[in-house]
Structure formats: structure tokens, C-alpha cells
Amino acid sequence: MVKFQKYRKLKAGVMAVVAVATLAVATAPAAEASNCKFGGVTINCDYPASKHVFSDGALQQFVIGTDAAVWTRWTDPQWTSWSSWESMGGQARSGVAIKQHYTQDSILIGVIGTDGYGWSKYRQPSGTWNAWQRYGVSFP
């Protein structure tokens, strides 16, 4: 029963992330996206950067790259240095929505994919990420 309740909470959290990501869908096609510099890289400026602060004070940022993938970087807890940008993959046509899940160190991120479906990734408290998961809701 407890496992089922956790699954329902996870599913509800994912759907909330997908719903928030839906609000960030831009009307401009990807070919007409406006690009700008952010944190030393060129990103798709049609979607704002998203961020999350973890319990140790470390900050993680998420952006949509010019390749439509989700990109991320993070700081150390004192914010004295940044990691290099890393691609998380995916093909997004929305900004990255973030939802804290159970603890400050486990989060869900969600985007609307170029296929029109909601996609999410889950970060475990250990810092590992699961694979992208598609949800059966298509957005026009």
C-alpha cells in the first residue's frame, strides 16, 4: 500500500510539472527561436532559465540549448565555482519546470517535447537522474 501511495504521489508530481511546463510553451517554431548568451553558452532565449537550490546550498540551473536539449550546470555549496554545462538530452519546446519531490534534494524536471508530449526526469537525493519518461498527454 505504501509503495502504491508513493507511486500516486510521484505521478501527481510529474503531472504538476507537465502542467507547469505547458504554460511555458512558446508559439515560435524552433527554427525561429531567438538565441542569446547565458552563463557562457548560447541558449534558446524563448524559454527562461530555471533553477533549484539544494539543502547544502548548491544551485543547479537548467536551460534549453539551441539543439532543443535540456542543459544543466551547478555550483558548489559556497557558489564559488560552476561545473561545465552538461546535456541532459531530450527535445524540448518549452522551458524547464521544476518541482521539489519529497525532499529538497530530490526534484522532478519537466518539459513539453517537440512531439507535443510531457516528458520528465527525476533526480534522486544521491544526485543520480533517471531516464526521460514520456506521459500520455499530448499538448497542441
TrEMBL record:
The keyword tRNA-binding does not apply. Coiled coil: none annotated. Residues 27-135 form the PLL-like beta propeller domain. Keywords: Signal. InterPro entries: PLL-like_beta-prop. The keyword Signal applies. Residues 1-30 form the signal peptide. It holds the Pfam family DUF8189. It comes from the Bacteria. This is PLL-like beta propeller domain-containing protein.
